[in-house]
Amino acid sequence: MVDFTLTDEQKDLRELAHNFAEKEIRPVAWEYDKEGTWPQEIIDKAWEVGLMNTHTPEAYGGPGLDYLSGCLIEEEFGWGCSGIGTSLAANGLASAPVAIGGTEETKKKYLGMLIEEPKLASFCLTEPDAGSDVSGMKTRAVKKGDKYILNGSKCFITNGGYADWFTVYAKTDPDQGHRGISAFVVDGKQDNVTVDKKEDKMGQRASNTATITFDEVEVPAENLLGEENHGFKLAMMTLDRTRPGVAAMAVGIARAAFEFASEYSKERVQFGVPIAMHQAIQFLIADMATKVDAGRLLTWLSAVQLDQGKRNTLACSEAKRFAADSAMEVTTDAVQVYGGYGFIKEYPVEKLMRDAKIMQLYEGTSQIQRLVIAREVLLPRTIEETIPEAEAKGREADQKVAETAPAAA
Length: 409
Ligand code: COS
Known about the structure:
- The protein is an alpha+beta fold.
- Helices cover about 50% and strands about 15% of the residues.
- The chain is built from 9 helices and 12 strands.
- A 4-stranded mixed β-sheet has the order 1-4-5-8.
- Strand 9 and strand 10 (about 275) form a beta hairpin.
- Helix 1 (about 10-35) packs across helix 3 (about 65-100).
- The longest helix has about 35 residues, at about 230-265.
């Protein structure tokens, strides 16, 4: 049975997130965008009301929410301001590899840290010469006794300037390509972990995007996540879990643009009638509405598959690709509906158009998503994953699962 009805708990959560976005995020969003203001007080409030670290399992103090609920929250964040929303959601990206691959002690320590206080963590995968091509990374981790020595630089790190800890990917066997990468948790507050650069961005200007350099950093061997040289797979499993949320945020941006454009089209009069009376504008609005709704359906599918314990690689790449590209199209059309005013900062939609652009870039470009979709469709493969107990809602705990990603139908 296909049933799109949310549970009462999910409806309450969506309402909580919407009210938060409306009262705490929207009123400051355009001002924060202008100044590139770091939204610390909003992070503190979101943490206080329980809208952060939503997937952290109950065993480590978190609410252990399902992935669909996470998407409901992220859509509202995106509707409020995706720059601030990205700052609020990024702990999920850093935490997922810990939840999947960390030892019991690591999970208690690092996931617990984010629950005890409004602290932040960042996911360090990308490097200047390794973006889409993850295996091209140069960061090295060399084992010495009971430690690894970490050297390298990671760029475009969300919340990097404010993170208390990082999940860092590094080569442990440089000759083995993607099979020579390992993942670690690294304490952020150490002298030889430095924040080098805060990026001055086109959009999502309230989020912090930094370069982090690790210089001879000693990482205890127990901070290795999963098995040595299995970090690439951990990164892919992480992205499968976080791309639904990114897609949801893109839906939120598109929805905001659609709402602004619809309202404006009813007020703006040209040729003696509100422009909403002109078919040229009606068609733009109709396509916007369709893209928002279709993006949401794909997003929910990708989250529900996860909640059902299925591998969602195909669905989450479809959702992320479609929702991100749609957000770009919808925000561009919203500017079109506003005409010349749309290009002016005094009006709300140019910010949304700038913010939407990153949705086609971060957590895998739209081209990478197409690559993944094409592979899953043309050469469906069975991938073995070890699903940790806390996450294994619909499966046997701690079992190895070999699965082909299901298609939508
Ligand atoms: N879940 C689990 N394992 C996966 C997986 C998934 N979704 N996707 C791939 N794997 C495994 C494969 O099974 C394969 O395992 P083996 O080593 O046992 O053969 C391994 O990972 C390599 O897979 P693949 O051959 O598909 O890797 P490629 O290097 O050809 O390409 C892409 C992978 C390009 C899709 C990947 O590098 C990618 O997603 N890049 C974008 C990264 C990104 O999103 N960066 C943004 C920064 S993060 S904010």
